[in-house]
């Protein structure tokens, strides 16, 4: 019998790169040569470690990933590079696990690897994703231990943190410190600051920064910076200046993105100038900027605000025709508009049609339709929607439940108990509903009602104990 050729470390890396299933990749890594009588002799390369750690981290298979990382620590034949730890810290940051990210950062030296500003920046950014601002301060206060020089990325992360906390004074101080230390700001620095000032309504300072980045630092604003300023102007109903800024982009040959036009479309509807929308769409296409889902959603929202549902559905169909898949927001906007106008039958039909369009309704979709049906006293249809909601693990708002239960109590509908027990399992019954049900039991002398009521209390108690 021909002897099976063993997989080499180089071949293992190639196979891991080709394997898309992280579980199979893990088995391949752990047992590259399953028939080898001495498997511990396999010499893993750093590339193999890097590939399997990346696949497990992206799949959030952290328990398995941590075992591989521990193997890497003990494998003294391999000298790890800092990038692998930066990746791990990022995976933990995205999964909102700041303590694990900090632990990995602290342990980097134990892997025979030196920390540099790269891993410091990665840690700061991961803590920022987790909104761990106090921990960011602690890391920054000890930053000299890890890196001799700071770069623009470090300051950009700190400025972003200050802006997210709406502490623009501190953001400005960080910017000044950046200049004092001789670190040159870049487009991201100014974009972050401009976004912070626009978000907090200080458009004067935002435009002052734009002028300064162009004149003092010779940095051209990018599409994202322009989009931020245009959004800020539309927010304060200054559509004329927003259009001028868009024209400046065209004049300076800044590549326009769909976000700019989507914002201007929303602003046109808000300003009562919907007649300008077709021109914006035509110009958008003429400039090679294809409308995306956000653009169409802006159109749909504008038409629904105008109660022009025919045009809203027209935009939805055009979206599909252009190969731009509607998302749940597209449907929720129309369903919400229809329910506000008490067109609940059409809203319910659209809800039922969503799966056929390969778009799954979310909790907002169900809550909107359920409330709309209760609002027009169509409780039979509401019960059907509630059943589907409960099956999918969703619950309505307490105000909707109260209105629904109130009607069923008045009608002495015995199906009420089925819904109540399902809602109690999800701890979704408030005081008002409890009072309604209690009054129903007090009026009804039947032992059946009392038995159901006791069952409801037991279900609620179990639900509460499981959550605590």
Automatic annotation (TrEMBL):
Keywords for this protein: Repeat
Family named by the database record: Belongs to the PPR family. P subfamily.
Organism: Penstemon davidsonii
PPR repeat positions: 151-185, 186-216, 222-256, 257-291, 292-326, 327-361, 362-396
Source organism superkingdom: Eukaryota
Gene3D superfamilies: Tetratricopeptide repeat domain
Keyword set includes Acetylation: no
InterPro entries xref list: Mito_RNA-Proc/Resp (IPR051240), PPR_rpt (IPR002885), TPR-like_helical_dom_sf (IPR011990)
Protein name: Pentatricopeptide repeat-containing protein
């Amino acid at each position: 019998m021909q002897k099976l050729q063993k997989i080499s470390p180089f071949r293992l890396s190639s196979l891991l790169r080709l394997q898309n299933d992280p579980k199979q990749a893990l088995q391949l890594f752990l047992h590259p040569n399953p028939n080898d009588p001495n498997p511990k002799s396999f010499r893993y390369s750093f590339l193999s470690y890097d590939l399997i750690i990346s696949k497990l981290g992206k799949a959030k298979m952290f328990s398995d990933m941590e075992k591989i990382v521990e193997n890497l620590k003990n494998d003294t034949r391999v000298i790890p590079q800092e990038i692998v730890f930066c990746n791990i810290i990022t995976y933990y940051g995205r999964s909102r696990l700041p303590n694990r990210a900090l632990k990995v950062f602290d342990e980097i030296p134990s892997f025979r690897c030196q920390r540099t500003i790269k891993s410091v920046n990665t840690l700061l950014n991961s803590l920022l994703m987790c909104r761990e601002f106090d921990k960011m301060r602690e890391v920054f206060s000890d930053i000299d231990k890890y890196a001799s020089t700071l770069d623009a990325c470090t300051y950009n992360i700190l400025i972003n943190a200050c802006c997210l906390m709406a502490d623009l004074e501190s953001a400005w101080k960080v910017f000044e410190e950046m200049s004092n230390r001789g670190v040159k700001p870049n487009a991201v620095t100014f974009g972050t600051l401009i976004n912070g000032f626009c978000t907090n309504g200080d458009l004067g300072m935002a435009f002052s920064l734009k002028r300064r980045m162009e004149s003092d630092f010779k940095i051209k604003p990018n599409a994202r910076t322009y989009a931020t300023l245009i959004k800020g102007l539309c927010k304060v109903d200054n559509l004329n200046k927003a259009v001028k800024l868009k024209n400046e982009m065209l004049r300076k040959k800044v590549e326009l993105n769909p976000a700019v036009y989507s914002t201007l479309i929303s602003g046109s509807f808000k300003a009562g100038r919907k007649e300008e929308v077709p021109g914006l769409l035509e110009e958008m296409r003429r400039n090679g900027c294809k409308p995306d889902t956000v653009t169409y959603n802006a159109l749909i929202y504008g038409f629904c605000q105008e109660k022009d549902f025919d045009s809203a559905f027209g935009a939805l169909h055009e979206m599909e025709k252009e190969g731009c898949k509607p998302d749940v927001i597209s449907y929720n906007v129309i369903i919400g508009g229809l329910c506000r106008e008490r067109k609940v039958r059409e809203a319910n039909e659209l809800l039922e049609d969503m799966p056929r369009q390969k778009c799954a309704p979310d909790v907002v979709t169900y809550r909107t339709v359920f409330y709309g049906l209760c609002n027009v006293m169509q409780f039979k249809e509401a019960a059907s929607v509630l059943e589907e909601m409960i099956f999918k693990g969703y619950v309505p708002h307490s105000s909707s439940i109260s209105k629904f239960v109130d009607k069923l109590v008045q009608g002495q509908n015995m199906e009420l108990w089925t819904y109540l027990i399902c809602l109690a399992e999800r701890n979704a019954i408030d005081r008002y509903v409890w009072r309604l049900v209690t009054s129903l039991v007090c009026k009804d002398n039947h032992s059946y009602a009392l038995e159901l009521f006791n069952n409801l209390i037991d279900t609620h108690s179990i639900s509460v104990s499981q959550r605590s």
